[in-house]
Structures are given as C-alpha cells and as structure tokens.
Amino acid sequence: MLDAACHVRAARALDRLARDLVDSSEFTRIALDADAWPYGRPTSPAMPGTRWMSGCVS
Predict the structure, then answer these.
(1) Which residues contact 57 (CB under 8 A, 6 or more apart)?
(2) Which pLDDT value is given to residue 33?
(3) CA 6, 7, 10: angle at the middle one, nearest 5?
(4) What is the pTM of this model?
(5) What DSSP state is assigned to residue 43?
(6) Per-residue pLDDT tens for 3-57?
(7) Which of 22, 24, 26, 38 is 20 to 30 A away from residue 16, measured at CA?
(8) Alpha-carbon span 47 to 43, nearest angstrom
C-alpha cells in the first residue's frame, strides 16, 4: 500500500510541475523558440525535423 501511495504522490507532483511549466511565460518563450532546438528546423522538405536522428546536430 505504501508503494502505491508513493506513486500517487509522485504523479501529483509531476502534474503540478507540468501545470506550472505550462503557465510559465518564460518556459513558453523557450519552448517556442525554434533556434533553441537543434532539430527544430527541417533539413529537407521530405524529412522535416529528423536531422537529430542522423547525429548531424550542430
């Protein structure tokens, strides 16, 4: 029973963290900044956003 309660508390804590991040304007600004993500820009029209899978992240 203790293990289940621990998992519930951990899930609630992660839920609170996710909600706080969503409500954070700073997090939103960083998450939406395409230049902040190495795989944010497509390398070719056929394979958008897959450059990170080839190991060619600059």
Answers:
(1) 38, 39, 51
(2) 76
(3) 85
(4) 0.45
(5) S
(6) 888 999 999 999 999 999 888 888 878 777 766 666 555 555 555 555 555 555 4
(7) 38
(8) 7
The amino acid at 14: L
| Token pair in block for residue 30 | 């960083």
The token pair that represents 22 in the structure block:
């969503």
Residue recorded with tokens 């190991």 = 55
Token code pair at residue 35: 């230049």
Structure tokens of 3?
């293990």
